[in-house]
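User: I'm writing a tutorial on reading structure tokens. Could you give me a worked example: one chain, its sequence, then its tokens, then a sentence or two explaining what the tokens reveal?
Assistant: Sure. Here is the example chain.
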Amino acid sequence: MPELPEVETIARSLRPELTGREVISVHLLWARTLAAPAPGLFAERISGQQILGVSRRAKYLNLQLSTFNLFIHLRMSGDLRVEDDSLPPQKHDRLVLKLSDARQLVFNDTRKFGRVWLTAHPEDVIGGLGPEPLDPAFTPEMLYTRLRERHRQLKPLLLDQGFVAGLGNIYAVEALHLSEIHPLRVSDTIAMDEAARLHHAIQTVLMAGIEHNGASIDWVYRGGGFQNYFRVYDREGQPCPVCGTPVERMVVGQRGTHFCPKCQVL
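And here are its predicted structure tokens:
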């Protein structure tokens, strides 16, 4: 699943392509792609809307329209294309928005997990999200307080979008290694200095991911280069870049988790 750096990269690439264009019509190829509203109401409301901007909140893409917000969550296999509107649909295309410049925005989703919302009330979609980890308001002190308020294993907690928004498996693993904290540490045992290290590590790996246009590790997301700079993720048995100890893998919260047993002592 694309995480914060990948979604940020997509938003930045779409912004100049879509801003200022008008949505002329809709071609819905799989109705369940729409989380809300119903297909007929969606087509009625989005037609004639101008795209004022493209941004990101957590792992959601947000197209700011004249009256509404169009949120897109790519989930496991979602992809977006901007192309000439004369091109026919591809096998896994789910939604096509025809635009005013003879092009179209296409949502392709092989596994059908991705969802689209059109709403005048963004909080209905993103109101439950935690703080943005790159926002200036997300401070070491805030992270420390939020960690101490909970009693959970650290790795699953970092993946909880209500705790901090946008982190996924790759960047949580990388941040924990950079901060030298074991994935199984319980959140309310984290000291202030450790929270500060974790805060710095989270921001460092996310900014590095954005700098390299995200990570491309399978066919779902292409064009990124951060996979060439992984510290421990997907490097089981390879030497830790800090101490040389072989990287180990375990399953935490049903997710594969890589760590260094020497640098990240439980």
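What the tokens reveal: DSSP finds seven helices and eleven strands in the chain. The first helix runs from residue 4 to 18.
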